[in-house]
Every structure is written in structure tokens, then in C-alpha cells.
Write a structure and sequence with these properties.
The chain is α/β, with parallel strands linked by helices. It has five helices and seven strands, in the order αβββαβαβαββα. Helix content is 39%, strand content 16%. A seven-stranded mixed β-sheet has the order 1-7-6-3-4-5-2. The relative contact order is 0.20.
């Protein structure tokens, strides 16, 4: 009787170890970020411009995963911390980083000129895209993404919006999410798109 119990215990232990190994080989099946389901099309920008003054539209980034962030260059802590995490994410993605675009939309258009955004973002990654525009056009973008902006242009949002290669708003990364978990989610999202 004791042998049967021992063998049953060993079989259960073997099954658990095999399951753990298979999970580590085949990776996660669920996102760690806040998934939006069903995923709507991401709200499009209107009247916003990039650092060189050209109009920016999300549809131009179809085929890429867009990491969208709302912030301002005078932010003392949240914005630089978020951008530093996004820098780590891009570096960890290595060659797959070519399939990702990081866009920061200013919440302080009075101070964040296109040139200032370009200079600020270059401290993190020169490929990061800074977006500005007229206050009314920016206000529409903020409202479309549920971003609260105070009268002085500050925001306390550190949420990163993830737009998939088909232009759908798939999930958000909350402020406390680690770069490793972001990379894991992005790799899972990219594998779904293949």
C-alpha cells in the first residue's frame, strides 16, 4: 500500500515538474498588463505634429506596435521614470525593437515645443517620437484616451497605451509594471500577430 502511495506521489510530482518546464519553454499565455477586450480601434490624432513639424497620424504606424505615453518635459519624476522604463523595454527587445514605436504626446504645449521634445526624448532614445500641437487638438487627444491634464499642463498619468499592429488599443501598462513584464507582453502580442 505504501508503495502505491509513493508511486502516486512521484507521478503527481513528475506531472507538476513537466508542466512547469513546458510553461517555461512555451511562455505565458495571458497578458500581465491591463487587457482591453474587445479591443477597439485606437482613437486617431487630429492636428498633432512631430518634432520636424509634420503631421502625425496613428494610421502611419500600422504594422508596428505603438507604445503611447502622455507627459511633459518639466515633469520631475513620473515622466522620466516611465521613459527610462520604455528605454529598457526597447533595448530588451533587441532586433524586434524595429517593430515598436514609442510616442510621447505632450500635456504641456505652452512649454513643450517640438524642439524641446526632441531634445528631451533624445536623452532616452533618439527614436522616441515627441508629439505636440494646438491646445484644442491636444485636448481632444487627451480626452480620447481618458488622460486628465491640470491647467498648468501637468498630468499624473504614467499609463502606457499599447496599440497593436492593426491599430487596435489592446492594453495598457500601469505605472508599477516592470520592464520585464512589458517585454513579455509585447513578445506575446507580436507572436499573436504572426
Amino acid at each position: 500500500m505504501e508503495r502505491k502511495i509513493l508511486w502516486a506521489g512521484l507521478l503527481i510530482l513528475t506531472a507538476l515538474v513537466t508542466g512547469a518546464v513546458l510553461f517555461s519553454i512555451y511562455g505565458q499565455k495571458e497578458f500581465k498588463g491591463v487587457e482591453i477586450s474587445p479591443a477597439p480601434l485606437a482613437p486617431e490624432f487630429s492636428g498633432l505634429t512631430t518634432r520636424d513639424g509634420s503631421s502625425v497620424r496613428l494610421e502611419a504606424y500600422k504594422g508596428k506596435t505603438v507604445l503611447l505615453f502622455f507627459g511633459y518635459t518639466n515633469c520631475p519624476d513620473v515622466c522620466p521614470t516611465t521613459l527610462a522604463r520604455l528605454k529598457q523595454v526597447e533595448a530588451s527587445l533587441a532586433e524586434k525593437s524595429n517593430d515598436v514605436a514609442v510616442i510621447m504626446v505632450t500635456t504641456d504645449p505652452l512649454r513643450d515645443t517640438a524642439e524641446r521634445l526632441k531634445s528631451y526624448l533624445a536623452n532616452f532614445n533618439p527614436s522616441f517620437i515627441g508629439v505636440t500641437g494646438q491646445p484644442t487638438d491636444l485636448a481632444a487627444a487627451w480626452a480620447n484616451y481618458g488622460v486628465s491634464v491640470l491647467e498648468d499642463g501637468t498630468t499624473h498619468s504614467a499609463r502606457v497605451y499599447v496599440i497593436d499592429p492593426k491599430g487596435r488599443l489592446r492594453m495598457t501598462f500601469p505605472a508599477e509594471m516592470t520592464p520585464e513584464d512589458m517585454v513579455s507582453d509585447l513578445l506575446l502580442l507580436m507572436s499573436e500577430e504572426q
